[in-house]
Amino acid sequence: MPRLAPLLALLAAPAAAGALPPDRAAELEHLVRQDCGACHGMTLAGGLGPDIRPAALTALDRTALVSVILDGRPGTAMPPWRPLLSEAEAAWIAEYLRRGDAP
Q: Could you write out the DSSP letters of every residue in 55-83?
């Protein structure tokens, strides 16, 4: 029974949805600032790409925003990031943008 205690504690602990290792989260923050900012403006208020601050994203639900991040927008300058990002990472970016944590 003593060997089961750590396993039971692990199973009882709630998993943080969309949690990423801190170093990966920092890399994704940098990606938003640099790569997204290159088209959407350094403050993400728009440029070549549209405004992607929280108020501008209210029309897109989380799933739609993740899809845009992963698959891009055909016929626009928005590239697909699926080759470089996992779904979990795209979901993290979507929530990061929707919360307004970005610059």
A: GGGTTS-HHHHHHHHHH--TTSS----TT
